[in-house]
From TrEMBL:
Signal peptide: none annotated. One of its GO terms (cellular component) is endomembrane system. This is DUF1232 domain-containing protein. It comes from the Bacteria. The chain crosses the membrane at residues 20-37. InterPro entries: DUF1232. Keywords: Membrane, Transmembrane, Transmembrane helix. Residues 20-54 form the DUF1232 domain. It is a multi-pass membrane protein. Its main location: membrane. It is found in: Endomembrane system.
Length: 96
């Protein structure tokens, strides 16, 4: 089941142009006493803050792991300190 807010949040936080705006907006929402469920109601008031914080942490960790995976695949493989782009692959055959 896809939740429209979750899809919007995920797509917006992955857009580098709006990433910091969403992060700061999320933190402001968590710290603000004005919420969807008011914080002065015990337990119920913290549910929305916890859900939004969990969403932020999940999306930031996913973005971080995706970036690390992309970095790992773009690194040049080295053998004995020599970059693989500096080596020549030769298929030698016996002559004679």
């Amino acid at each position: 089941m896809k939740v429209p807010f979750y899809d919007w949040y995920r797509n917006t936080i992955r857009n580098s142009q709006y990433r910091w705006l969403i992060i700061f907006g999320t933190l402001a929402y968590i710290l603000s006493p004005i919420d969807l469920l008011p914080d002065f109601i015990p337990l119920i008031g913290q549910i929305d803050d916890t859900v939004v914080l969990g969403l932020l942490i999940a999306e930031l960790s996913t973005a971080m792991f995706d970036r690390l995976k992309a970095q790992k695949t773009t690194e040049v493989a080295t053998v004995d300190g020599v970059a693989s782009s500096d080596t020549v692959d030769v298929n030698a055959t016996k002559v004679g």
